[in-house]
Amino acid sequence: MSSYNFISFGTTDLSAPLVVLLHGRGANETSLTDLARKLNPEHRVISLRGPIQLAPSSYTWFQNRGIGRPIPESLRQSLDWFYSFYESANSEASPVAVIGFSGGAAFAGAIALDKKIPLAGSAILYGTVPFDAGLSTENNSLSGAQIFAAQGTRDQVMPPELMEKTWKYLHTESGATLEALKSNGGHEITPDVAAHLKTWIDRVVE
């Protein structure tokens, strides 16, 4: 496990809402810079690097059995690592939202499902719920959670069957308070999704 590496955006006020960005597999803390700059500058935005190094400048949140399929033991180690980061970064007990893209989306979903820390909201962007990864995904496992989900209609990166399962679970089984949209694009955060995401974050953290 690495130490905590991140880039900060927005305010430096430790009492402000905290928004944590979780990059995709094989990327790093610089990959969501464009998104970070579109979010509310009155929030404290942290783009965090995953704890597992795959190659130079290439990191992930957990080892997997294939795209969107975390290995439970690896996921648990990384969740515990994240909770230590959370304690160090949120000394003022501010509202916290976690925003995950691709592989980071599964990690954001895992944090919400694990229910070990209070969250204002979790965003699952162009990724999957972590099914069969040691966390309950039974009916109402996300009851009371604020979830934002986005998928691309032409996404050729994520397994279609897992994306369909995620969409169905979030809408009909999870029990979450859900805001969801599909963009007419591929595996990328489109301007319309970024705009909707900003509005959703502003609402859930206030």
Record keyword descriptors for this entry:
two-stranded antiparallel sheet, 5 helices, 23% strand, 9 strands, 206 residues, alpha/beta, single chain, 7-stranded mixed sheet, Rossmann fold
Task: Give a brief rundown of this model.
This protein has helices spanning 33-36, 72-89, 103-114, 160-173, 191-205, and strands at 6-10, 18-22, 44-48, 52-55, 58-60, 96-101, 121-125, 146-152, 177-183. The protein has 206 residues and is an alpha/beta fold.
List the helices and strands and how they pair.
Blueprint: E1 6-10, E2 18-22, H1 33-36, E3 44-48, E4 52-55, E5 58-60, H2 72-89, E6 96-101, H3 103-114, E7 121-125, E8 146-152, H4 160-173, E9 177-183, H5 191-205
Describe this structure in words.
The radius of gyration is 15 Å and the shape is globular. The chain has a single domain (6-205), classed as Rossmann fold, CATH 3.40.50.1820. The strands form 2 sheets. It has a 7-stranded mixed beta sheet with strand order 1-3-2-6-7-8-9, sandwiched between helices. It has helices at 33-36, 72-89, 103-114, 160-173, 191-205; strands at residues 6-10, 18-22, 44-48, 52-55, 58-60, 96-101, 121-125, 146-152, 177-183. The chain has 5 helices and 9 strands; from the N terminus they run ββαβββαβαββαβα. It is an alpha/beta fold and 206 residues long. Strand 6 (96-101), helix 3 (103-114) and strand 7 form a beta-alpha-beta unit. It starts with 5 loop residues before the first strand and ends with a helix.
